[in-house]
Amino acid sequence: MEVLLRGGPGDGQVIDGGGESVVWGACLYERTSNIGRSRGRDRRVYQHRPDCCQPYGHGSEDRCE
Ligand SMILES: [Zn+2]
Question: 17 CA to middle of ligand 1, Å?
Fold first, then answer.
């Protein structure tokens, strides 16, 4: 299943994923109940976690917000 990323460095990206969360680069994205439209198709929106960088040991050098 392809999902749409919202917020953070991966904003607007469409990737293969599913479940409660997906990882894009150094970032963690969390499933939402929203559906977004991208490339002419409706996709599940995954939202960038604002706290994803610190708990997982990633810093600003990973271009994470
Ligand atoms: Zn992040």
Answer: 17
